[in-house]
Each structure stands twice: as C-alpha cells, then as structure tokens.
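Predict both folds.
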Amino acid sequence: MQALNLADFPVEYGILRADKLRLFSSPATLTLGAYGFPDNQTEIIRRENKTAKAVILKGYDHTGREKQLAMTIYDGWDSIELLHSTGTNPDSEKSVIVYGRTVRHKQYGYEPFLLISQVITKESLKDFTEEELFPIDEVCYTDREKHGGYGPVTILLKNGDKKTVMYEGMEGNLQL
C-alpha cells in the first residue's frame, strides 16, 4: 500500500506540513491543495525565496469581505499550480485552488522523501510579511543523501523555533 507519514504544526495564520512519502511503486504523481478560494476577481501573486515558491490569492467572498490565502512549497515539490473551477464552491460561482505537485519517476533510487509546504490565510488584504510567507530558515536532514529517507528531520524557523519530526514509529505513538 502506498502511504504518507503526515506531520504538521501551527505557524502564524496557518499550518506548516512536513509529510514523508512511503511509496513502494513509481512512477507516482502527488498533489496537495488548499481549499477552494472564492474567485471574485482574485488577484494572483507569485513569489520566490531561495528554493521556496509561493502563490498568494487575494480577493473577496460573495458578500465582499476581504480574504487571502497563500501556499508555499519547499523541499520535495516540483511545482505550485492553480486549478480554476465553476460551480464547486458554496461561497461563489467560481473558485481557484492552489496546489503543490510532484512526480516520483524512479522505480529504484533515492528521490526526495519529504514534502514540505504551508497554507496560511488572512481575513484582510494586508500583505503577508516575507517571514510569514517563507518562515523556514533551514531544513536539517540526518540521512547522508539529504532527502529525508530515514532518521529525524529538524526544521529551523526564522523566528527561532525548532521543530524535530521523527517519523519512525509514528503509527504507534498517536497523541492528542
């Protein structure tokens, strides 16, 4: 069975994910999207910082209230893309979904295992700061190849926080 180890933690305005792939068969295409953002003349902004990429959606719901959403992709993702839809959002006739996409090509080989991303939202059009959009300072891998295939992974945030994720044994250690 193909699987993922899911790991996330809160950041200001949203959540940061550090999911680990457990795929036994390739090729495989994976996507991870945010929710359907109401598309009432949405402004779409693309930003980059080192190897990270972000898409910011700024707009309004059907009542005219300001809102925005940003998705940032880091390690493991190939691209960040948009999907436009009609008749699928309960708030507005049109909507747009921002999502990360990656493809694993090799049947045998050591491709990146970790998929790091974040989704943040605001109920205003005030710009996200650079630190809010790109909160990661460094990702520290313990495996020799720096792909996250084994061992813990530590994420150092620009605000000084440090998050260490140990994927081994996660299934037997569910805590709320």
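Second protein follows, with its predicted structure tokens after the sequence.
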Amino acid sequence: MFVFSEEDEKQIEKILNRYPEEQKRSALLPLLTLVQRREKHVSADAMRDIGRRLDLSPAYVQSVCSFYTMYSATPVGKYLILFCINISCQLNGCDELLAHTAKKLNIEIGGTTEDMKFTLHREECLAACSGAPMMRINDTFYENLTSDRIDQILGSLD
C-alpha cells in the first residue's frame, strides 16, 4: 500500500479542489507528478491509490502513466536528463552529445548511475528547436549545448 505524507495530503486536497467532482479525473496528471517528484517513480501501489481517489481503474492510471515520458514505473536518478532527439537537435549534433554524456556518466542511454544521481534518456521532442541541441534536467532546459557546456552543467549538480 502506498502512503502519502501529511504534506502530500495537503497538496492533494489543493489539487482536487481545482476540479468539480464530476471532473476529478482531471487531477490525474498533477497527482502522478506529485508522486514522481517525491518518489522518483510512480509505483503500482501509488497508481492504485491515485485511481481509488479519482474513481479510475488501476489499468487506466497505468496507461496514462506509461504514455507520458515524464513518469517512470521504475526509480530514476536524482537528476533525470532528457536529450531531445528531434530533427533540429539531430541536425545540430545531439547524437554525439548524447554519447558524450553517457560516456561522461559511465552509463548506457536509458540507464541510471550506480549512486542513483543521474538517469539518461532520449526524448522525442522538448519543444525548444531554436536552441538546438538541447536537453532537460528535471525541470530546467539547457540549450545550444556543446560537450564543454555539458561537462560544466553536470559538474555543477550536487
């Protein structure tokens, strides 16, 4: 069974109060985000609890959770690095920069460092084409990347 903290329960109440009772399913993404940020993944137990609160089946919650790349069913690192691989980033060298980052972190693309500090993934589009190549780390966008800039960014993270 998944247990929300007292602070989470306050947040949940605020989130649910944004929506009329007949549209409470609209709170699904904010509740998944709350869990993802706290736990670094959304467990099956959390999906069941969210579904129960919103009168949604666990299968429905899981289908939504698996559709959006910002949610993970398995734990991710403290820093989730998403590399844009869409056409603008491709034309500006994202493949080489992604490979550089994987080598720097000593992990495979899609993997997590042993210390659970970094997880590295491809992302189809991060909607920052004018700043290509780019990546997102948690909620921060980094544009116009070079290998030196990536080394600087990774070195600045505690």
